[in-house]
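Take a record.
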Amino acid sequence: MSNTQLTCLCGSVSITVTENNPHVGTCHCGMCRKWGGGPLMTVKHDSPISFSGEENISVFSSSEWAERGFCKQCGTHLFYRLKETQEYYLTAGLFEDNKHFVFDHQVFIDNKPDYYEFANATRNMTEKEIFAMFANSDDN
C-alpha cells in the first residue's frame, strides 16, 4: 500500500491517505452548491487519513450529520465528513494523480439545477433515496 500526499493550494495543510478509492461522486444538494459554487465532487475514504498543518484547518458544522473542512489560509475545500461515523469524503480536486478515477455516481440528483448536465453514465440517487439509505444503515 502506498501513501498519497495531498495539499491545499497554499501548502499549509497536507493530507496523507493510504489507499486511493477510484470512485468519484458528485453531490447536487443546495449546501454543496452554495459551498463551492457548483456540485461537490468527492472521493470517499475508508482507509486511515492523517493531517499535518491541522491548526490551519477550519471545520464548519453544516448539518446535524456532517461537517466541512477547509484551509483557513487559502480557503481550499478539503473534506466533507459524516459526524457519526467519521467517514471522510475528500474533494476530488485535491488529487493530482487522478488517471484511475471513475466518475460513477451522483446524489441529490433531483436538486440539480437545469443549467448543467454531466455526460457520464452514472448511478443517480435522489434526496429521498439518500436519506432512506442512511436511515436503513442505522438499523444494521
